[in-house]
Amino acid sequence: MTEPILEIRNLCKSFGALKATDDVSLSLRPGEIHALIGPNGAGKSTLIKQIAGGLRSNSGSIHFAGHDVTPLSTVQRARAGLGRTFQISSLAMEYTALQNAMLGALGREGRVMRFFAPVMGQRNLCDAALAALARVGLSDHATIRTAELSHGQRRLLEVAVALTLAPKVFLMDEPMAGLGAEGSKQLTGFLDELRHEAPILLVEHDMDAVFALADRISVLVYGKVIASGSADEIRADPMVREAYLGAEELA
Amino acid sequence: MNLLELRGINAAYGPSQALFGVDLALKQGEVCALMGRNGMGKSTTIKVICRMLRHSGGEVRFDGREISALPSHRAARLGIGLVPEGRRCFAPLTVHENLIAAARPGPWDFAAVCELFPRLGERRGQQAALLSGGEQQMLAIGRALMTNPTLLLLDEATEGLAPVVRQEIWAAVAKLKRDSGMALIVVDKSLAELRGIADHAVILERGASVWSGSMTALDRQVADQFLGV
Amino acid sequence: MTPILLIEQVLNGLQSGVMLFLMAAGLTLIFGVMGLINLAHGSLYMVGAFAAAAVSAVTGSFLLALIAALAAAAAAGAVIEVAVIRRLYDRDHLDQVLATFALILIFSEGTRYLFGSFPLFLDIPKALAGPVSLPGGIQYPLYRLVIILAGLLIALGLFALIARTRIGIQIRAGAADREMIAALGIDISRLYTLIFALGAALAGVAGALVGAIQSVQVGMGEPVLILAFVVIVIGGIGSIKGAFVGALLVGLTDTLGSVLLPMFFAGFMEPAAATSVGASLSSMLIYILMAGVLLFKPTGLFGEA
Amino acid sequence: EGKVKVGMITTLSGGGAGLGIDVRDGFMLATKMAGNADLELVVEDDQRKPDIAVQLADKMIQSEKVDVLTGIIWSNLAMAVVPAATAQGKFYLSPNAGPSALAGKGCNKLYFNIAWQNDNLHEAAGAYANDAGYRNSFILAPNYPAGKDALTGYKRMYEGELAGEVYTELGQTDYAAEIAQIRASGADSVFFFLPGGMGISFLKQYANSGVELPVVGPAFSFDQGILQAVGEAALGIKNTSQWSKDIDNEANQTFVEEFQAEYGRLPSLYASQGYDTANLLLSAMEKADVSDQEAFQKALEAAEFDSVRGKFKFGANHHPVQDYYVREVVKEGDVFTNKIVATSLTDHADAYVSECKM
Amino acid sequence: MRRETLLNIALFALLPVTALAALLLDEPFIITLATKAAILALAGVGLNIALGLGGLVSLGHAAFFGLGGYAMGILAAHAQSYTPLLESPFLIEGTKSMPVIWLVAIIVSALAALAIGALSLRTSGVYFIMITLAFGQMLFYFAISWPAYGGEDGLSIYVRNGFPGLNTLDPIQFFAIAFAVLALALFLAGRLAKSPFGLALSAARQNPERVETVGLAPYRLRLVAFVISGAVTGLAGALFADLNRFVSPVMFSWQTSGEIMIFVILGGVGRLYGPVAGAALFILLEHVLGGLSEYWHVYLGLLLLLVVLFARGGLIGTLAGREVAHD
Ligand SMILES: Nc1ncnc2c1ncn2[C@@H]1O[C@H](COP(=O)(O)OP(=O)(O)OP(=O)(O)O)[C@@H](O)[C@H]1O
Ligand SMILES: Nc1ncnc2c1ncn2[C@@H]1O[C@H](COP(=O)(O)OP(=O)(O)OP(=O)(O)O)[C@@H](O)[C@H]1O
Ligand SMILES: [Mg+2]
Ligand SMILES: [Mg+2]
């Protein structure tokens, strides 16, 4: 089995008395999609934030591509190759879809202290941005301001920006949310291929997608991983059924 | 008589038109599913109904009266409740404050909402901004229920909710419809779940209503053509 | 310095803090809670003082003067809310800055047009004139005690209004998302007009109360405006408690700074230079305080991120 | 030929407008009474901003082509305008501000001050304190150059001890802390220089504090325009001035009557200064043509006009050598005003005249 | 060509055309006004980099304006009195050469912006407005009470500083200098807005979280923008002092910060030529209305009010339509 590229060891985070993540250990191996599911408020987004660097952990460590990245800031982790999408779209609303994607490309390139040459004239950045938009199916909307995109279109743009970063690992917080049935189906197919470029830690409530995609699933409840395993194992786990899946018709 | 009736609604954001003649009708106690691909005008239609967006053509009748001229707070007071797309909780307020801010008397009160969503009771003093995504969604639903509407608009109200919770919500919706005769317009992505609850559906395509009929008439072919499933 | 003088100066500091709160109270509502940057707040303060002076000159009654201040400022507030401010809620803060700056110009020169260029007379009522003796032999002006009382009452009232009532919740909800609260059935426009008028009325009353021991003149509102902003920001925007604590802190710092700093410098400098350096530093002190507070707590003492 | 164009830059809007309006009104009254058609006046509002004042001076010199400038109220504005104006060969007649820099090293043959050197009124207060037998004064002024000049001026004449010396913040409105210091200081008298609203606040608060030490100050806080706003709190307070409406001479009586008739209010110190400035200028115009700079300067130096102050002459630095009076605030009917109770300095010049090399 | 481009060309030409017309009509004061407009527009261009592009609402830009002004005042005062500015540890002489003064003004205000920005940028929103105000006020009170350079009275320079090969005392030549500097600043600011840095900075204004997650540090972007912005405003301060041949603490006052901000808002926040339009209009109003009535501020206020209420996006926004300036 290959070495994990991302490894989380004994991560804890409390908000006052609330333990949002409680001694969580997880790993992500090259080429896989590792889904993280769990009830609302279980601590999934908190965990993503801790990995991406937006939240400091109380204890535990994060190892990424062979380095301990626990002390690094969000920016440094992003540069190291952690690409994240947000549960609630977080985009530059005045910019066009293309400009948002350019921003990602610029972040990947890293040379931002350039004050003179027009950014739109930089072919390499532009191409990377357009390619990313094309991959999520937003080519037609490249020149539309983000504020004028519909909710679902913004969700796709969120993914496109992460693509331009060409990260070593994707951290995706509910990418399907807000997408229609068709959109979800397409994105599922897309993620299925994307895993070969970089593995994905996927938080998602869309069980169709999770069961279709995930190589491994971990279930988080009250900040603790209560189960971990293949799709079939999880589907069959009575604890998971009770805490999370409910009586859902199994697709 | 129809509780809500949209006839030939046109609407635009500034210069760009988003709706081109949307028709929709709904009786007391009915649930209507509003469907369509991303960006087809579902949310825009919802905004027109609750008067958040002024339409440029057509008419909106609610409870027998033309409400096009009303500001949104008057429409709300007539009994239109809204769970908006993207939650829009009042971030700096606590859960409890969010719920009571616009509450109106009726069967839905704080206790009833907490019974539906126990999580909200547990987080009652927490700032909405610090809630998890799903908790915010629950809050948005609870907040709308607390206004005790006769027509409830749910715009992607189950987005980001765990399957169990989603099931609970659909169960609650069914109960609402049954017990209090509340009418609902539901925008949601899961056709399977909508089938269990909606009476009829309207499908939008590029801002126009292209199909409407009962849920049973919405067969595979229609779904394939307009929704891509 | 004798202990008794020190105590007296601390008292002065607290008093000046409460007075600051009185002046900042209206702004706490409009800026702190409604989230609207209203530079014309100082003008409303001035309107109150001028209305009070005019009415007191005619009637000789301080009570009537206070009522006039309240009414005039509230009316002015309501008018500008309906005519101008209402169109600016969903705009950028900067548009609010420009518009309310324009209002300052209009109010200041309009007042000068009406009342002339010279300061007006407004005195404290005879019944409240003169000092009273406090324990420890401190002589303290009675009127200032009244101001402290008024400030405390207003602080409590505001706190109750904002934190404890549904109206308070609705105002804050409106500040967070106006469109949404309206869609839930709250007539936010009317509510905001009312609250704005209330904030204006508080400014007007403060103008009258404080104007009676200061000078009632055109431009009196601007220094107050800056101070009031400082107070609110130190305390943390949106927090009445913060505004109150901020006001006390600023009052104490300002008073004690101007007393103690020259003495401190006199310890190792020649007297003339010490008084001058001390005075210079003390005039910067509240800004140093504010910068210091914000460096350690970037959202003020009681503010939330 | 024989015509003189005067540019008046003064404060007509905003907080300090009252002073500028009085200077202007006094000046215009004098020109009206003289009926001299050769004098042409342009007035502009400096908004009390130095940069605006400088630009207005430029405008008047470059576009309006004035011969004489006047009107500025505030020292800092004067410092901004006067050196540049005189450098361009224009006369400047100061109706109010008299910063020490322009009286000493920075004096200029084209610059005349018709009011006072900034220290003068404070010196007069110091001299009065001696006469009144004060031995232990508490003195305070705002922390800016004019405030420092004020305390320096007072101390120059005053011979007693200082119970305390305090610089307050410019624009301060609450004086509780200072009053507490005064109460505790064991002083026998208080001298203060707090112009404008600061003085009103101080006096009201002082009167209400129960401290009953005698107070003395320069005329600025007790002048006609401001006195009504102070009210009772000022009654009986002694202040020093080079002018008072009850100075007994014909020119002054005419001035006071005509001013009241023209504007419907009592004239202020500033109005008297504006009035004298105009009359000085008119007197020089009688004698010389402004295009002959040297002759015109001589004519101004002669100062042969009927000053409302009685006698008036210039020292070597073109600043007044005059008498300073002690006035007391009294109530005449409904109106608060001043009456002269003593003379504190006679034929007094200023401390900087020896530094002036013209 | 886009309407905004045409408008910008017209605006750009406005000042020199006015100045030349004034020269022909022999109205030197109008030239002075045009110069003032150019210099204040330059200050606005500086602020606009922080405000429009970076969303940094600084109410403390008077600090840099004033520092630039005092850089000129102090250097020229020492040159005027032939006393060195500093004798030990090394000798610094005063100077009356504009280029040298500009350089000093730029460096001093950039350093100040670095210090103030490094501290202030820990806060955001209204707190940022107030903390920048606080630093401005500290300098203001310091300048008022520091006696060495005149305190509140300020510092007068009797003769305008020199520029190699030009006669700066001639209004039109001084105008040419000021305008050339403005033109250069506009050109550079225009390039900046479209550069990679501009893209990232503006994104950091709209959504700092987004910028962080693509691996760019908003704090650094903002700090750099703040320093550039402060330096440009500082340069404007030096020119302004030279225009008046005078500096005083008023340059440090919050009203000055406010006025610079008004120019920017009036013209249109984030519009490259916004400050030019704003400053020109403001000065025009000030001088036209000033002559009309003692109470002209009322009219000024009413006009400004009309602009905010009915001219969305400032003058340029209204005239050019709501197209976004940067794309
Ligand atoms: N800053 C905070 N302060 C206090 N509590 C917080 C904070 N952030 C999150 N929480 C709480 O921590 C819990 C975990 O939140 P988190 O956002 O990680 O949940 P989640 O698993 O992503 O849920 P969802 O599926 O609904 O998005 C929630 O109950 C939330 O209310
Ligand atoms: N604020 C806005 N300004 C301009 N155009 C908008 C705005 N909001 C939506 N649009 C446009 O209007 C069209 C309809 O949008 P709407 O939000 O109604 O779609 P939707 O069906 O709700 O899609 P989704 O499923 O993605 O939420 C879209 O093409 C969108 O780009
Ligand atoms: Mg989440
Ligand atoms: Mg939608």
List the defining traits of the structure above.
heteropentamer; A: 251 residues; alpha/beta; Rossmann fold; 2 domains; six-stranded mixed sheet; four-stranded antiparallel sheet; 9 helices; 10 strands; E: 327 residues; mainly alpha; ABC transporter involved in vitamin B12 uptake, BtuC; two-stranded antiparallel ribbon; 13 helices; 72% helix; globular; disordered C terminus; binds adenosine-5'-triphosphate; binds magnesium ion
Could you characterize what this model shows?
The complex is a heteropentamer of chains A (251), B (229), C (305), D (358) and E (327). Chain A is α/β, with parallel strands linked by helices and 251 residues long. Chain A has nine helices and ten strands. The longest helix of chain A is centred in the middle third of the chain and has 14 residues, at 123-136. With 229 residues, chain B is an alpha/beta fold. Chain B has a domain at 1-79 and 153-162 and 186-229: P-loop containing nucleotide triphosphate hydrolases (Rossmann fold, 3-Layer(aba) Sandwich), CATH 3.40.50. Chain B is 34% helix and 28% strand. A six-stranded mixed sheet of chain B has the order 6-7-8-3-9-10, sandwiched between helices. A four-stranded antiparallel sheet of chain B has the order 2-1-4-5, covered by helices on one side. In chain B, a hairpin with a 2-residue loop joins β1 and β2. The longest helix of chain B has 18 residues, at 163-180. Chain C has eleven helices and two strands, in the order ααααββααααααα. Chain C is globular, with a radius of gyration of 20 Å. Chain C has one domain. Chain C has helices spanning 3-33, 41-59, 62-83, 93-115, 142-164, 166-176, 178-183, 188-211, 221-235, 240-266, 271-296, and strands at residues 131-134, 138-141. The mean pLDDT of chain C is 89. Chain E has 327 residues and is an all-alpha fold. Chain E has a single domain, classed as ABC transporter involved in vitamin B12 uptake, BtuC. Chain E has helices at residues 3-24, 28-53, 62-81, 98-120, 125-145, 171-194, 196-206, 208-213, 218-244, 254-267, 274-292, 296-310, 314-320, and strands at residues 155-156, 246-247. In chain E, α7 (196-206) packs across α9. The radius of gyration of chain E is 19 Å and the shape is globular. At the C-D interface, α1, α4, α10 and α11 of C face α1, β7, α7, α8 and α9 of D.
Sequence-ordered SSE layout with sheet pairings:
The complex is a heteropentamer of chains A (251), B (229), C (305), D (358) and E (327).
Chain B: E1 2-13, E2 16-27, E3 31-35, H1 42-49, E4 57-62, E5 65-66, H2 72-78, E6 80-83, H3 95-100, H4 110-116, H5 118-122, H6 133-145, E7 151-155, H7 163-180, E8 183-187, H8 191-195, E9 200-205, E10 208-214, H9 220-227
Parallel strand pairs in B: 3-8, 3-9, 6-7, 7-8
Antiparallel strand pairs in B: 1-2, 1-4, 4-5, 9-10
Chain C: H1 3-33, H2 41-59, H3 62-83, H4 93-115, E1 131-134, E2 138-141, H5 142-164, H6 166-176, H7 178-183, H8 188-211, H9 221-235, H10 240-266, H11 271-296
Helix pairs in contact in C: 1-5, 1-8, 1-9, 1-10, 2-3, 2-4, 2-8, 2-9, 3-8, 5-6, 6-8, 9-10, 9-11, 10-11
Chain D: E1 4-10, H1 17-34, E2 39-45, H2 50-62, E3 68-70, H3 75-87, E4 91-94, H4 100-103, E5 111-113, H5 120-132, E6 136-142, H6 145-157, E7 161-168, H7 176-185, E8 189-192, H8 197-207, E9 215-218, H9 224-230, E10 238-241, H10 250-263, H11 269-287, H12 293-302, E11 313-314, E12 320-332, E13 335-348
Parallel strand pairs in D: 1-2, 1-3, 3-4, 4-5, 6-7, 6-8, 8-9, 9-10
Antiparallel strand pairs in D: 10-12, 11-12, 12-13
One adenosine-5'-triphosphate sits between chains A (15, 18, 20, 38, 40-46, 87) and B (123, 126, 130-135, 160).
